[in-house]
UniProtKB/TrEMBL annotation:
Coiled coil: none annotated. Residues 10-165 form the S-Me-THD N-terminal domain. Residues 171-353 form the S-Me-THD-like C-terminal domain. This is DUF917 domain-containing protein. SUPFAM superfamilies: CV3147-like. Pfam families: S-Me-THD_C (PF20906), S-Me-THD_N (PF06032).
Length: 357
């Protein structure tokens, strides 16, 4: 796959569309991230995109993501100064400048937002992320799968509050960072796993920025966008139908609930239920699993193939539900321990989506 060397204003619509698809319903709606990125590029210029091997061995990489319930972040947008506060604190702690920004998760608004944060800081964006998708909890990142320590977490909120954490492990990083986020009103910007280029090699999903842009361009250029997306991702079509019920509640820093679809056309007479915790976690049909985390499950518009985020689901929408394989690191024993179905409380073993029919 051909990589890119910069993100320009012309790239943003396709990039945002690709991030939406990779968001598996979460990571925040790309609409707000797209507006922030467009504003930042207009004010600060294009953002260079660099592969991880171009980062100096001792160069500090700043992974950034929004944390909290997507429904809250959509209604309470960031001020734009959060990355400045976080970068200044990280540089104070480490005693040297940050070399680059990286999206902690490429999915949803967090993928698009990384462009805005890099532009605001005048730094390049690493062509990589910590998930290859979106996950709802802090410890669910590839750096944790690789066994790297959670050396530092820094959070900033729209009010200007800055919080620095030194959690002992991944689960504690989630518990404490989530509590701080709830205290901040349910949404904040977070840096976690602030590590060097050398430490991150082999511990992140590389090429994910280029991948998101490729997905968006493929969909935009096709006369049959859903078909093109299925072919590009080698995805399984779980169901095409109408949204007939959405149950959604916000609490504890998450959006939780479920989605029920009634099949149409060739899928008439079938129903699919998708369980949600910020992201789409498990899809059931007639009590059997059709797909589950860590594989990706995304709901897309049946006509445009635009991803429909969990906070945007509405009765009557005509959609197709797709699922495709996650990055291989998530299928390792350590990856499944951190982000497999049992990590979310489901009493079921993981089966790759391509083996579920």
């Amino acid at each position: 796959m051909q990589s890119i060397d910069r993100i320009t204003p012309d790239d943003l619509p396709a990039f945002a569309r690709g991030c939406g698809v990779l968001g598996t319903g979460g990571g925040g709606s790309v609409d707000s991230g797209l507006l922030a990125a467009a504003h930042a590029l207009a004010e600060y210029g294009d953002v260079p995109v660099v592969p991880l091997d171009r980062i100096a061995a001792d160069g500090l990489v700043l992974p950034l993501s929004g944390i909290g319930a997507p429904t809250v972040s959509h209604e309470m947008p960031m001020s734009g100064e959060e990355p400045v506060l976080i970068a200044a604190e990280v540089e104070r702690i480490f005693g040297r400048p940050v070399s680059a920004v990286m999206a902690s998760e490429i999915g949803g608004s967090n993928g698009v937002g990384a462009v805005a944060w890099a532009a605001r800081l005048g730094l390049p964006l690493v062509d990589a992320d910590g998930m290859g998708r979106a996950f709802p909890e802090v410890q669910m990142v590839s750096q944790n799968v690789a066994g790297l320590p959670v050396n530092l977490i820094v959070l900033a909120d729209v009010q200007g509050n800055l919080t620095t954490l030194r959690p002992v492990d991944g689960p504690w990083s989630e518990a404490i960072a989530r509590a701080v986020t709830v205290a901040c009103g349910g949404s904040a910007l977070m840096a976690d796993y602030v590590l060097t280029g050398a430490e991150l090699r082999g511990a992140v999903v590389e090429g994910s920025v280029s991948s998101a842009l490729r997905i968006g361009r493929t969909v935009a250029e096709s006369g049959e966008p859903v078909k093109a997306l299925v072919e590009l991702l080698q995805a399984t079509t779980l169901l095409t139908g109408k949204v007939v019920d959405v149950e959604r509640r916000t609490g504890g820093g998450f959006v939780r609930g479920s989605l029920i679809l009634d099949g149409t056309g060739a899928d008439r007479g079938r129903m699919l239920r998708v369980e949600i915790q910020n992201e789409n976690l498990v899809a059931f049909e007639d009590g059997r699993v059709r797909a589950c985390v860590p594989d990706l499950i995304t709901v897309v518009d049946v006509e445009t193939a635009d991803a429909v985020s969990t906070e945007s689901l509405r009765y009557g929408q005509r959609v197709t539900v797709l699922s495709w394989p996650c990055d291989p690191l998530w299928r390792t024993p350590r990856g499944l321990e951190i982000a497999g179905p049992r990590a979310f409380g489901y009493d079921l073993d993981y089966t790759p989506v391509e083996h579920l029919r």
